[in-house]
Amino acid sequence: MIRIPSSIQLHKASKILTLEYGTEEQYHLPAEFLRVHSPSAQVQGHGKPILQFGKLGVGLIKVEPAGQYALKLTFDDGHDSGLFTWEYLEQLAQRQAQLWEDYLAELKAAGKSRDPCEQVVRLML
């Protein structure tokens, strides 16, 4: 059964999307986490995910429904493709800690950083 959040709140200042499922279950998803796990082809590739880096500090500027089955998220770096289905959002929420740990390990293995300024410095060296 697909669960739809009973409440969705965008906290622009803290760059957090809060999903509530009833009164007992609440998830706080940082914009950076959502951006690097976007379901878009730009991120997911075509069967081979593309590592996103330099997204520290990215924010969400808009959250809007996409029919009855998903949310369309617009990030302040211009990314707005990919629809976050209710099922995918719930998976991200429930697996957030492990997904984030895996992402950080991938960044390290690739010699990349979350910090966009660090990427510019590395390119200039």
Number of strands: 6
Measured as a percent range, the helix fraction is 25-40%
Strand content: 25-35%
Mean pLDDT: 93
Order of helices and strands: EEEHHEEEHHH
What gap, in angstroms, lies between the N and C termini? 52 Å
State the shape. globular
Structural class: alpha+beta
* Unreliable stretches covering 5 or more consecutive residues: none
Strand order of the largest sheet: 1-2-3
Break the fold down into its secondary structure elements and pairings.
Elements: E1 7-11, E2 16-21, E3 25-30, H1 31-36, H2 41-44, E4 60-66, E5 70-75, E6 83-85, H3 86-94, H4 96-110, H5 116-124
Antiparallel strand pairs: 1-2, 2-3, 4-5, 5-6
Question: Could you explain how this protein is built, in words?
Answer:
With 125 residues, this protein is of the alpha+beta class. Helix content is 34%, strand content 26%. It has a 3-stranded antiparallel beta sheet. It has a 3-stranded antiparallel beta sheet with strand order 4-5-6. The longest helix has 15 residues, at 96-110.
In short:
With 125 residues, this protein is α+β, with helices and mostly antiparallel strands. Helix content is 34%, strand content 26%.
Keywords:
single chain, alpha+beta, 6 strands, 34% helix
